[in-house]
């Protein structure tokens, strides 16, 4: 994927190799620390409502409505697994870096809960680390999974008074790097093997690749508009490309059959009924499958890096319950988590950006990759909020 650099465009808060806004950097860049950016989650019952207030800030949602969502967290003792996952991921990244002879410290900050990104940026700067290379724990293009993290970086720098001191670049989106895709492929292969052992024919099995639903208007604005990726924008296109690659790979390896059908479904919708969101819903599709001759379903959490709340509740609880009600044999396959192939790929991406590896030499498994180092102008607009200051991309 290529695009010409736009004249003298300047990227806010960027390091030297990225400041002019090239789609893929061509000059090696020195960094002095890694920044792990996460969503954040509550770690006790008393944290749940304050956390949800942070998530929904600016929308004026009363606590009574937040409590409806809070029941999901309260079911698990008020603890989201996402922070513990990021602790494990940070430790795995530090170990992988160490094994490669790289001594970069890894700072960790969240958007919505402690430790906050502002604190991570202040800590890094206090330690003399001002040239940061960020890895955000979301693989795809959309406002909440990419641009909002870039807004977080810009806000953290300006709110701490460190503009002009701290610079943050962000590695490219990793939806189609081999180490991210491999754990999902392994999970699908295992599910198909289990169903085959139960005597099910390929046409009786359905693979449902599940991801978080988002408003259709935001989905249409995901990724650079000039790419013309169609309905659902880059967000839907990237997921479909990865799903297709997984099934093609498994078929070539003899682990899947040409008769095994798959589709992309959505989950965790949270908007008002009057607002169109991406469909079909995973539970709605599961209810329809018996009429199509399906007897078993594998739910693959393709949009998720780890087993956080949308996986534990919306898939393990609601989707598998829907399968049981439909009389279907069902399984939910694993997320990448700290799978070694994934951790290794993240460090590969860090090294790739530092060394300015040419695009044609960068690993990717779909025709959409390798994605951009520097987000393009107008990428991933939020319809409700418009364009707010963001790092790691060309304005707006």
UniProtKB/TrEMBL annotation:
Annotated InterPro entries: Ferrochelatase (IPR001015), Ferrochelatase_C (IPR033644), Ferrochelatase_N (IPR033659)
Catalytic activity: Fe-coproporphyrin III + 2 H(+) = coproporphyrin III + Fe(2+)
Entry binding sites for Fe-coproporphyrin III: 80, 149
Pathway: Porphyrin-containing compound metabolism; protoheme biosynthesis
Annotated Pfam families: Ferrochelatase
Gene Ontology MF annotations: ferrochelatase activity; metal ion binding
Residue numbers spanned by region Disordered: 1-26
One biological process term in Gene Ontology: heme biosynthetic process
EC number, UniProt record: 4.99.1.9
Gene3D superfamilies tied to this protein: 3.40.50.1400
Intracellular or extracellular location(s): Cytoplasm
GO cellular component, as recorded: cytoplasm
UniProt KW keywords: Cytoplasm, Heme biosynthesis, Iron, Lyase, Metal-binding, Porphyrin biosynthesis
Positions in coiled-coil regions: none
Residues noted as binding Fe(2+) in the record, renumbered to the chain: 212, 310
Family the entry assigns: Belongs to the ferrochelatase family.
Function per UniProt: Involved in coproporphyrin-dependent heme b biosynthesis. Catalyzes the insertion of ferrous iron into coproporphyrin III to form Fe-coproporphyrin III.
Protein name, entry field: Coproporphyrin III ferrochelatase
């Amino acid at each position: 994927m290529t695009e010409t650099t736009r004249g003298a465009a300047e990227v806010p808060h960027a390091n030297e190799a990225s400041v002019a806004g090239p789609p893929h950097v061509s000059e090696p860049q020195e960094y002095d620390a890694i920044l792990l950016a996460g969503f954040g989650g509550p770690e006790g019952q008393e944290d749940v409502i304050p956390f949800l207030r942070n998530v929904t800030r600016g929308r004026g949602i009363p606590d009574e409505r937040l409590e409806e969502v809070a029941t999901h967290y309260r079911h698990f003792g008020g603890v989201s697994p996402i922070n513990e996952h990021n602790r494990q991921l940070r430790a795995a990244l530090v170990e992988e870096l160490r094994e490669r002879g790289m001594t970069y410290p890894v700072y960790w900050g969240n958007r919505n809960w402690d430790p906050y990104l502002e604190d991570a940026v202040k800590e890094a700067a206090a330690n003399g680390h001002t040239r940061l290379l960020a890895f955000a724990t979301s693989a795809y293009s959309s406002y909440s999974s990419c641009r909002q993290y870039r807004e977080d970086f810009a806000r953290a720098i300006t709110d701490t008074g460190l503009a002009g001191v701290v610079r943050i670049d962000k590695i490219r989106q990793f939806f189609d790097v081999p180490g991210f895709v491999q754990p999902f492929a392994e999970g699908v292969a295992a599910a198909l093997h289990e169903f085959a052992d139960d005597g099910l024919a390929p046409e009786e099995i359905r693979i449902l690749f599940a991801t978080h639903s988002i408003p259709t208007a935001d989905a249409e604005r995901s990724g650079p508009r000039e790419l013309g990726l169609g309905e659902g924008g880059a967000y839907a296109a990237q997921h479909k490309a990865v799903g297709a690659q997984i099934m093609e790979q498994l078929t070539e390896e003899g682990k899947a059959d040409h008769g095994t059908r798959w589709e992309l479904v959505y989950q965790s919708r949270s908007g008002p009924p009057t607002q169109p969101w991406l469909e079909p819903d995973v539970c709605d599709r599961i209810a329809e499958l018996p009429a199509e001759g399906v007897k078993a379903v594998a739910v693959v959490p393709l949009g998720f890096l780890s087993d956080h709340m949308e996986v534990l509740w919306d898939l393990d609880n609601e989707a598998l319950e829907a399968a049981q009600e439909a009389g279907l044999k069902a399984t939910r396959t694993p997320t990448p988590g700290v799978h070694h192939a994934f951790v290794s790929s993240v460090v590969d991406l860090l090294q790739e950006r530092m060394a300015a590896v040419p695009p044609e030499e960068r690993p990717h498994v779909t025709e959409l990759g390798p994605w951009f180092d520097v987000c393009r102008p107008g990428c991933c607009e939020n319809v409700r909020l418009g364009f707010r200051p963001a790092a790691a991309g060309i304005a707006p």
